[in-house]
């Protein structure tokens, strides 16, 4: 029997700090359409993104605020309003430009002598440009001094805020990252720094995510590239980004399954359930359902997944109650020997009643497995107190539904309808999910 019990997970580790970060996605129009700049990170033993292809970016520096005076086209109030933060929004724009200069050698800055035009770094002696980059890498103050000396201002108005991602709980390092877009400046050449980044590529987004290309991509990078692939030109994409009214924060969640641990994205069916059973990313959530899998969904709910039915779907049986006390077994069919054995092994306490959300008679094998349990179906309106777990019987489409009051969880044989009010739906097939109230 495949068992997953979030009560047996290791004790939560110390809370990992979340660091604010900014990333700049540099774009250009290529011969065959939109292209994006990808940098390959250097191989490092202590880096969870070692060797990955990424966009230029990094952590917000405590001194990035000192760059505000060198920013043009956007002040902190407007930047903060765009990012929906109380203050310091301009820090993210400035940091994105700084990191892009440090990692890729591209500087989004204008010369006061030529307003509206980005500086052409290719005209500088190579040694001077290298020295400028090296100085900037040592600290933000050097970039401030460089801008003052050359009469440059960071062109933050050339950046378009695009998306916002938070690293999943449970990762060794967590970043709250704002992603910006900008068009590749004329008169400049991409030069990886050789320390953080060792190679660069210009790729169409669809090509970058293609398995044939073979790039190592973080989940967030892959997801953003898939979004970028919907656009055919820099202008189309930039217009889209500038027109976005609300940019929500996206946070995947880590979960386990046949392919090992991976991030589960917000649109995946398992996302809600993973967040409920494993909010801190310590282990216990699953992204795939498997025959024989036992999941403890809450202190009062256990789910046992049965063999595939005629449609190929994996049906669930549930136990509702208190561990070591009385419980109700909900939907024990299909009554195959293996499923009955799995249910008997998973029972958290004394099975007092056997109920069904389906208008089907119970199989003899179920009655034989729990001969002392009542198999009489309850009537709508009835309530059963199991001592800390209260089940209310409701009349749903196609059969009965059972509301576990303490968990606000509704057990239902249908995937689309829910009687009454509940925060969570425990369906006959599929993952536990939040009840979308319309």
Automatic annotation (TrEMBL):
Residue ranges of every copy of the Nudix hydrolase domain listed in the record: 17-230
Q: Which domain of life is it from?
A: Bacteria
Segments carrying the region annotation (Disordered) are: 251-283
* SUPFAM superfamilies given in the database record: Metallo-hydrolase/oxidoreductase, Nudix
Q: By its UniProt entry, which PROSITE patterns does this protein fall under? A: NUDIX
* Example GO molecular function: metal ion binding
Which InterPro entries does the entry link to? NUDIX_hydrolase-like_dom_sf, NUDIX_hydrolase_dom, NUDT19, RibonucZ/Hydroxyglut_hydro
Alphabetically sorted, this entry's keywords are:
Hydrolase, Magnesium, Manganese, Metal-binding
- Has the keyword S-adenosyl-L-methionine been applied to this entry? no
Does the keyword section mention Magnesium?
Answer: yes
- Required cofactors, per record? Mn(2+); Mg(2+)
This one is known as: NUDIX hydrolase
